[in-house]
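Please fill in the sequence for the structure shown.

STRUCTURE ENCODING:
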């Protein structure tokens, strides 16, 4: 008769952690339920030989008993992600300012949506602006619309809500869209710097290097990489376990804030986030700095003062966007990943979630003569037709 196989089941700090085979032949894998929130007194435990080992309690069972216990425990503690809630604290520490915060974020949202829609319409309406630079600018405007629409309406709802809660899947969806938009925007401004480099440093080769096929392919690659990066991060977060009630001390669901409340090991997601942040923040930023070093060198060699001023104006607006975006993103994502937690996370997150989408159309429209002239043409055309 074949010897019964013994399995050791460990329960540590109220969690059924794993099953480990200790003896027997012809072993096979046993289905386990990692990190189930239960206790030795409530778990369906058949008769066994209890023993105490450090801070854990262990039992030895035969294989049949463990299979039965696993099935019963899975029936009692199913995967109830729908029951998980995230309570977004937001600015609840300032109850007297909730109305002011609501009005400010509502105004910012309306400005961001209207500004980015306007710049998209202006560029689309003027054929003279159908160039790679303005094509990337339209992509940036669409990203900003997606960015603000993902974050600010939820902030407004939380400011009005008494419970300030978000469901599990709403939080995951917000993190996915936010991470995809942010990652795509970081890559896009890098591509935009390359476009400026080719236009200023290699003007004769610009139509060949930045052909329609090339700049559309670059934009598509940026969007795909941003979405894949978000899928990787959120996919790893979906494997984490959370208590049913989670207090997130932030203004929206963001990866660094949400992983802090997870009850399972976040080692993998922490290191993946750090690697992605190093690439998206540091590597891309270094590439932009190198690119603009060459651009500045070429601008200083120009003999025409008019061309020099136009090049400086275009590049300065782009650098303002880069500094604002990369500075706030690095503070929010890169510093916590490297072990330096920021104390102004809410303020900085609000800056890049609300500030950047508002500033981008203002910077590019107010500092760009071509966009201003195109806007005036459209305005005069529609205004004159309205008077008639």
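FILLED IN BY: designer on duty
SEQUENCE:
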């Amino acid at each position: 008769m074949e010897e019964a196989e013994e399995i050791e089941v460990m329960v540590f700090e109220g969690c059924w952690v794993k099953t480990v085979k200790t003896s027997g032949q012809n072993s096979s894998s046993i289905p386990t339920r990692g990190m189930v929130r239960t206790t030795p007194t409530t778990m369906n435990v058949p008769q066994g030989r209890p023993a105490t080992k450090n801070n854990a309690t262990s039992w030895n069972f035969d294989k049949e008993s463990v299979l039965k216990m696993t099935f019963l425990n899975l029936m009692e503690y199913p995967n109830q992600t729908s029951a998980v809630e995230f309570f977004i604290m937001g600015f609840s520490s300032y109850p007297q300012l909730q109305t002011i915060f609501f009005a400010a974020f509502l105004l910012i949202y309306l400005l961001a949506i209207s500004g980015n829609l306007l710049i998209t319409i202006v560029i689309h309406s003027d054929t003279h602006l159908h160039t790679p630079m303005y094509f990337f600018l339209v992509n940036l405007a669409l990203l900003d619309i997606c960015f603000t629409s993902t974050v600010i309406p939820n902030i407004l709802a939380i400011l009005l809500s008494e419970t300030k809660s978000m469901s599990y899947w709403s939080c995951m969806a917000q993190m996915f869209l936010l991470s995809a938009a942010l990652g795509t925007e970081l890559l896009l401004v890098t591509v935009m710097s390359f476009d400026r480099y080719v236009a200023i440093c290699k003007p004769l080769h610009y139509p060949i290097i930045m052909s329609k096929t090339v700049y559309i392919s670059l934009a598509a690659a940026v969007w795909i990489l941003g979405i894949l990066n978000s899928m990787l991060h959120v996919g790893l977060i979906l494997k984490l376990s959370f208590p049913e009630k989670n207090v997130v001390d932030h203004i929206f669901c963001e990866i660094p804030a949400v992983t802090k409340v997870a009850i399972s090991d976040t080692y993998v997601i922490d290191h993946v986030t750090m690697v992605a942040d190093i690439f998206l923040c540091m590597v891309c930023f270094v590439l932009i700095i190198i690119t603009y070093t060459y651009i500045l060198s070429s601008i200083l060699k120009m003999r025409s003062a008019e061309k020099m001023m136009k090049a400086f104006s275009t590049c300065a607006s782009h650098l303002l966007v880069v500094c604002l975006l990369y500075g706030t993103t690095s503070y929010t994502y890169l510093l916590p990943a490297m072990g330096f937690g920021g104390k102004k996370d809410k303020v900085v997150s609000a800056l890049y979630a609300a500030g950047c989408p508002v500033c981008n159309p203002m910077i590019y429209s107010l500092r760009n003569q071509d966009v201003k002239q195109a806007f005036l043409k459209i305005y005069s055309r529609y205004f004159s037709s309205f008077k008639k």
